Please model this.
Amino acid sequence: MPIQGPFAPITPHPAFHRKHILSVKQFGPEDLYDLFNLAHEMRLQVERNGTIDLLKGRVLCTLFYESSTRTSSSFEAAMKRCGGEVLQINPDRSSVQKGETLADTIRTVGCYADAIVLRHPAVGSVQNAAKYSPVPVINAGDGIGEHPTQALLDIYTIRSELGTVNGKTITLLGDLKNGRTVHSLVVLLSFYSVRLNFVAPQSLKMPESVVHAAKRAGIPVHQCESLDEVLGETDVLYVTRVQQERFENKQEWEAVKDAYVVNHAVMARAKEDMIVMHPLPRVNEIDPEVDFDSRRAVYFRQMRYGLFVRMALLASVMA
Model:
């Protein structure tokens, strides 16, 4: 049922009402279309009014077993912009330190909140937590597994910046082995008519399961180690950090951490309308000088788009 705002009725996407959001595989093309339309309406409402009362009386719990700046704060901001409240649990200061299991922690906070946003370092942990939760669980990242809401906001960013996703050549660069953001993104990109380039050192190349899934969807895929090989044809350059925390020893990380650096020289060889994205945080893979290429460096606007996508998702799950 549409919920009247001061300017236009907001209709949350009914398919996700009180549902867990665990994987991008839950989403189809129509879901993306509806969710992005809702995100656009959220954007208009925020720009006009700052907040709406869509989730007034609802409480969201954020539970992050790994560090986070953007995902945690954007979910909190999204909930508050929708008129709801946030219960923030820090595992470092909770009964987790006394040995409490994830299942029991989830059961506990589920007594107090209407939904839980969970990040955990173990692959599959969020799916497992959902089995014990009395309220919807939203996956905010499970190790090197998935990060569905990041993938959603990435697609929305491309749409918003370039007008469409179809027909674009998208190059994913960096740590494609451990990057949960790119694993989820490829699944959603398979709904569109795109070309994909996977550029990574041999030791960090995209998992074969992800490559095969894209090819099964009919997406042309090219893999290489040299960015220059594909830079000239790239419409979207999606840069990822080489994640030190995913390496067993520092020497392995040191060997590849500086494999790619996007700087003015790289931008000069790229298309004039190519956009650069990054899920952040960055270390040194994008030189700060690129930040001033405000038309093409969209990674800070990407964060802002994420607010509206997460508002749309929370509304669809909790309203």
Notes: Residues 170 and 256 are 22 Å apart (CA to CA). Residues 3-7 have pLDDT under 50 and may be disordered.
